[in-house]
Design goal:
The chain has 388 residues and is an alpha+beta fold. 53% of the residues lie in helices and 20% in strands. The protein contains eleven helices and twelve strands. Helix 5 crosses helix 10, helix 6 packs parallel to helix 8 and helix 7 crosses helix 9.
């Protein structure tokens, strides 16, 4: 009885995990899969002044969700529709961003007309603001609350350039870190490394297409293909070696292209990259139904991992790489991605190995899950190929 309860309890946990993942994947933000709701701020303070110069890039899709910019309801925002609501957009932004210096709030004002700019995941409104502070001789405090009331996963990614300092400090505002100190001196090597490690972990965890590609390759790792049928792997050691081969191949491949793209040695069109990433998820999932490349999944992981690296590079570019700490940021981000991957594997492998002998795993998880993943990734592919 105890064994039955444990098995049922474990199955319920696995089903809950799969259900949560699928619900997250079907959310609107999953259309560009590894690009969640972010905004980008660059805050500069010139030496000898008490004024902050602010550039703030906010996704039009986020502004439309809050302010209903698409008045004709055709699903396509025109420059005219956006420009007509410039005052509302600026008012919203000013109410969600605060700076405090020497215990006094800085006065926020519009510095120049709003513009539009393209990011890897769509069009953004660009606000140019200024903040007049009483003094910049003491550390500033910044408060950020854009979209947290409607999307707790939203983040504000900040590059802060202090007076007389060339090094940009990277900060991330989230619902749990909505107020932070803007230090007048750089935090050093460790702070930069730690920040980009955190960014790497976060972006693999919300990079749904990357996660599904990896999971699609790992699902059969606890099974063996014999006479056209899936059978349980005899030992955990064998399953572990298969997982190591897949994860290592994927890691090496995306590290190569992430580095080359971030250093601007190689560049590919974002639409092409995103389409091939979606196609890789489809192929990896469909392969689980036939076992066509059984024993060589590491090769698929490496080939498509090269393309996934360009996807990671677009995320890293939007974060704003500090040019004087470029290699450090690259290393930190890549380490964070690997830490995020390993945490997923650490949860997946023991549970999958324990369930590998059950029909629930072979039919429900491997076959059913692979079909769902293939369908979802096919929709992503159509969206990206035809710019829907």
């Amino acid at each position: 009885m105890k064994r039955f309860f444990t098995f049922g309890h474990c199955c319920r946990h696995l089903l809950a995990m799969l259900a949560w993942l699928m619900l997250a994947l079907l959310a609107p933000t999953a259309a560009w899969a590894h690009k969640p709701s972010d905004s980008y701020l660059t805050v500069r303070a010139a030496q000898g002044t008490s004024t902050l110069s602010i550039r703030w890039d906010i996704a039009l899709r986020d502004l439309d969700y809050v302010l209903q910019l698409d008045r004709d309801g055709n699903g396509d925002l025109s420059w005219g529709e956006v420009r007509q609501r410039e005052a509302d957009i600026t008012k919203l932004a000013a109410s969600r961003l605060t700076f405090t210096a020497a215990g006094t709030a800085c006065a926020l004002a519009n510095a120049s007309p709003m513009m539009l700019d393209k990011h890897s995941d769509g069009t953004y409104a660009v606000l140019s603001l200024s903040a007049q502070c009483a003094s910049l001789e003491a550390p500033l405090r910044a408060g950020y609350s854009m979209l947290f009331d409607v999307d707790p996963s939203h983040r504000g990614l900040v590059q802060w350039v202090a007076p007389g300092v060339d090094t940009a400090q990277a900060l991330v505002f989230g619902a749990e870190s909505a107020e932070q100190v803007l230090a007048l001196q750089p935090g050093g090597v460790w702070q930069t490394l730690k920040q980009y490690i955190k960014d790497g972990v976060w972006h693999i965890w919300i990079g749904y297409d990357h996660i599904l590609f990896l999971l699609a390759l790992l699902l059969p790792a606890v099974l063996l293909r014999k006479n056209g049928q899936w059978e349980p792997a005899p030992t955990l050691r064998g399953a572990f070696i298969e997982v190591v081969k897949v994860v290592t191949a994927f890691t090496v491949a995306h590290s190569i292209t992430l580095t080359l793209a971030s250093l601007q040695i190689i560049s590919l069109p974002s639409r092409l990259v995103e389409s091939v990433i979606a196609a890789s998820v489809v192929l990896a999932a469909l392969n689980n139904l036939r076992g066509t490349i059984e024993g060589r999944r590491w090769a698929m992981a490496f080939v498509f991992g090269l393309i996934h690296g360009f996807g990671f590079a677009s995320v890293l570019a939007d974060l704003g790489l500090p040019q004087n700490a470029l290699i450090l940021a690259l290393v930190g981000f890549n380490v964070g991605v690997e830490m995020g991957q390993l945490s997923i594997v650490a949860v997946f492998l023991p549970l999958a190995f324990w369930l590998r002998r059950t029909r629930f795993y072979r039919v429900g998880v491997l076959t059913g899950g692979s079909l769902l993943v293939a369908l979802l990734a096919s929709w992503w592919l159509a969206q990206r190929m035809f710019d829907l």
